[in-house]
Every structure is written in structure tokens, then in C-alpha cells.
Amino acid sequence: MTSRENCRIELRTAIRQLTDRCLYSASKWAGEQLVGIELDPAKFTPSNTRFQRGSSSIRRRFRTNDVTSTPPAGMSYVSTPVMEEDEVVDGDFYLLAKSYFDCREYRRAAHVLRDQTGKKSVFLRCYALYLAGEKRKEEEMIELEGPLGKSDTVNRELASLDREFATLRKNGTIDPFGLYLYGLVLKEKGNQNLALTVLVESVNYYPWNWSAWSELQSLCTTADTLSSLNLSYHWMKDFFLASAYQELRMHNESLAKYESLQSTFSYSNYIQAQIAKAQYSLREFEQVEVIFEELLRTDPHRIEDMDMYSNVLYAKECFAALSYLAHRVFTTDKYRPESCCIIGNYYSLKGQHEKSVMYFRRALKLNKNYLSAWTLMGHEYVEMKNTPAAIDAYRRAVDIYPRDYRAWYGLGQAYEMMGMPFYALHYFKKSVFLQPNDSRLWIAMAQCYETDQLHMLEEAIKCYRRAANCNDREAIALHQLAKLHAELGRAEEAAFYYKKDLERMEAEEREGPNMVEALLFLAQHCRERKRFEEAEVYCTRLLDYTGPEKETAKSMLRGMRASESSFPSMDVEHFHP
After folding, report:
1. pTM for the full model?
2. What's residue 293's pLDDT?
3. Which residue among 172, 245, 522, 562 has its CA within the 20 to 30 Å range from the CA of 339?
């Protein structure tokens, strides 16, 4: 049996088991990977797959290995363990409880199973109690603080669930689904170390529950924590590591994992979306746009991750494409947080910031922990010059996810607008620590060092150097390095950076005041160093401009002719027809 067939059998079994326990998000994820497995060549016919072989240029682009029947290196395939099921013992009660659960009547579901002792029934009863507590917590928060308010309300079921699960684990009568829920309870209570241990036990025993992997990932806030996990070898571990690397900003490692997985899961839309996320973090917007266009072609009603696509369209100022995407998600499901964020981005691009804020707030009413909405709303408040509201939005974002470099960067911008560069510098440092390869963050920190209150030019130079080494797309760093060195009287260093900036502008065929400034400085610098031939080249180029720099260039050429006896006798006008 081939590795693909093994994966297919395992996932089909897992979907039934996860759905039977009402773990619908994990079941959906497993289903998406199931249909993403490429059929074996021997069994392939055009009629038994929804994709034609070779129809996707994106899938071909990211596949690194030829189609084979063996798994990539580092991936291990194991048989699905037979779960101990309890239908004979609690079957009728379990079916009734599951019906109540699906109708969101959680306490009724838990009550029906109060006397049932099977592992499935114990899990569903505890899961129903947990969700009942979460539902009550949300209601109390709205009653006390409103839909977007802060509150210290807690899930009142956590303590009793903690005691029960601890006893079951001690007695060895807890199954992997119970371990997953126990890990969730421990995480909510702040017992991170034990939660890590319990979740590792859960995924090692039953590796197909993606919800357990996701909770485990949320606890891996450092690479050291991730590497310390004692995980069994299984192909689900590769999905986990790829996702964890992405959260830890290890984007190249994440891409390598996903490309390896694609040899088996060639048609997985989930993997395509994750590759797009990694490319987005690397600011490869062209590739991201192509991937999302392909995703929409194969899954036209998809809303997941489309808010990231809207960010790309916003950055590229693609009005028509963003308008089309906003209309598409509106007609599919307008009351999804992602849909509201996409529409908010559309109105922001049109300059209608008040309307944009309204949609971001709507997204937060649907999910107040939706990170992207808080950050984007902060950006809108900055545009509206409502600095206190922007700061509040950014702070809510970092409360939810302290590793969001965009929110820290936004806080730095907000405090800089308020004329508080010391505070701004603190937040810019946090943002570059989380995203050290983003030139924009280094430039923002450098500009903060340049303010009159700080005037720490040496530190600014260090930041601009980092920005120049991080693929400074806006071409700011080289020019600023040249200006700062000139200001500090370091003519040779200034000339070096002006020359590099000039070469880049020529390569990119850009004109403007920066080019004039560079030509003028280099002409003067070469003249002072008696390098008249070089100076003549720069002056000749300045004669093509119509501003005062043209007269300056003429004057310099006359001066060089007068001071250099070997300089050819000719009219300056000869240089400019």
C-alpha cells in the first residue's frame, strides 16, 4: 500500500472519529487534507478527481519532488490505532446528547450524559460543560463591558473540569480527546507547562486532531520550547512544525516543510494558503497574489485567509480587484470577521476611513479577539489623526497576540505623532525584535533617532545600515546614510552611499530630487579630490536638469577649467546642446 493510500485511510477514519466527538474544526481540516491528496498515477483518471493534472501552475511551482509512492525524507506513516468505542454501552444517550450539542444546548447535553462512563460520553459531557462555561463567560462580558470591552470574567467550569481530568489522567482512564480538552483547560487556567505536557501526550496518542496541534502551537512561543517537545514521528508532525515555524517567523523553514508535504498533498488548498502566508511575510506580493487567485478559482466561496489577500491588494492599490473581492465575500457570508475586514480595507483604500472603522468594529463584534481587525482599525485611527483611539486599538492587539510586530510598530508611530520619541523608540525596538528582516521597521526606528529630542545620529546610521541589508524596497536607507555621513563630515562614506544610491536609481530607472542631490554631491566631492574627469561626468548629467543645479554644474565646470591647465579649452555650452 502506498504512502498516499495510507494517508487517505487514516484521514477517512479520523474524520469519522472527530465528527462523532463534535470536533468539527479538526474534522474540517482533516477533510481538506483528504481531498488534497493526489491520486496515485496508476489509479488516476480525469474523471475521478476535481483537478486536471497540470492544470495548476501554482501547484507545479511549489512542488519540489517528482510524484513517487514513497514519502519525503523525515515523514513517517503509521497505522491508525483502533479507538475504544462505547456505542453499545451509552449509544442511545450519546446520540441524544450529541443532538443537543449540535443545537448548542450544551447543559442539556451534559445532563443527559451525567451517569454515562464510556470515554466518548465522558469527553462529550466535559466538552459540553466547557462550551457552556465559555458561552456564559461571553454573555457576562457583554453585560458588564459591552461587546468590545475588557473584562476579567472567567469560565466557571474550569475548576471542576480540571479536577475531573486530573483524576482520570492519574487513573489512566482518559483518552486522547480528553487529554486535548484537559490541555485546553490548563491553558485557560494559566498552567502552561502542564498544558504542554498533556497536549503532547494527546497528539502522540492520536495525531489526527488538528485542534490539539493548534493549541500546542499557541504554547510554543520560542524556538527552544518547540525543539524541546518530545513528539512521535508522524506526517502530522510536519504540518505542525511548518505552522509553528511560520508563527515563530522562521519563514524559509516553514516553506521548506510545506513544499515537502506537497509531494503527497499536492492539491491541498490549506497548504497553498500557508505558502501564501509565508510569502506575504517575506513581502513577495506578486507570488501571493497569484496563489490567492488560484485558490479563488478552485474554491470560489472561500473566505478563510482572504483578508490577507485583501491586504496585498490594498498595498498594491488594486481598486478593481479589491472591490471584486469585497463583493464576493459579501455575497458569500457578510457576517464573517474576514469579510468585514476585507470590506474595511476596500473603504480604507477609497479614503473613507470612518466607514472603514465601522466595518472593523463589526468584525470585532463578531470576534473580539480577531487580531487583524484591531491592528487595521489602529491604522485607520492614525489616518484620522485620532491618536488615543489608535493607541487603544494597538494595545488590544498586543494583548491578544504579543508577537504581532505590526501592532508594536503602530504604537511606535502613534507615540511619534504625539511627539514622544522615547516611547516610540521603545515600541519600534519591540517590532524589529519580532520582525528583524523588515526594512520599514528599521527605517522607522532610524527616523526616531534622528528627531531633535534624541538626535542620536550614530544609532540612526546603524538602523539605516540594517534596513539597506534587508532589501529596502522604498530606497530610503541608502539616501539617508549618505545624508547623515555628509552631515557628520564624513565625505568618503557619504560619497560611497550616494554612489550606491545613484546606481540603484539608474538600475530602477528612477528620477527625482534624490538623483540630483547625489549627482551634485558626487560632482563636488570629485572636484575637491582633483578627480576632474569623474566630476565632469556628474556635472554633464546635471546639465540635463532645469533647476538651479544646472547653473551650479556650469559654474563648477568653469572653475575646473580655470584651475586645471590640462583641461580642454571649450565652451561650457558644448556640454549641453
Report:
1. 0.81
2. 94
3. 245
Query: What sign does the dihedral 396-397-400-405 (CA atoms) show?
Result: negative
Backbone angles phi, psi at 565, to 5 degrees: -65, -30
Q: Residue length, the chain?
A: 577
SS percent in the chain: helix, strand, coil, step 5: 70, 0, 30
pLDDT band of 2, cuts 50, 70, 90: low
> Is the Cβ–Cβ distance between 306 and 269 less than 8 Å?
no
Measured CA to CA in angstroms, residue 238 lies from 6, 147, 189, 241, 448 at distances of 16, 38, 29, 5, 41
> Each residue of 322-375: pLDDT tens digit?
999 999 999 999 999 999 999 999 999 999 999 999 999 999 999 989 999 999
For 132, residues 6+ apart whose C-beta sits below 8 A from its C-beta are 106, 107, 110, 157
Burial (Cβ within 10 Å: 0-12, 13-18, ≥19) of residue 40: middle
For residue 301, with 0-12 CB atoms within 10 Å meaning exposed, 13-18 middle and 19 or more buried, which class applies?
A: exposed
Contact call for residues 236 and 203 (beta carbons, < 8 A)? yes
If you write DSSP's letter for every residue of 96-125 in order, what string do you get? HHHHHHHTT-HHHHHHHTTT--SHHHHHHH
Per-residue model confidence (pLDDT) at position 70: 35
pLDDT over 90 (residue 394): yes
Q: What is the DSSP letter of 574?
A: G
Closest CA to 400 of 64, 150, 122, 70: 150
Q: What is the average pLDDT across 191-207?
A: 96
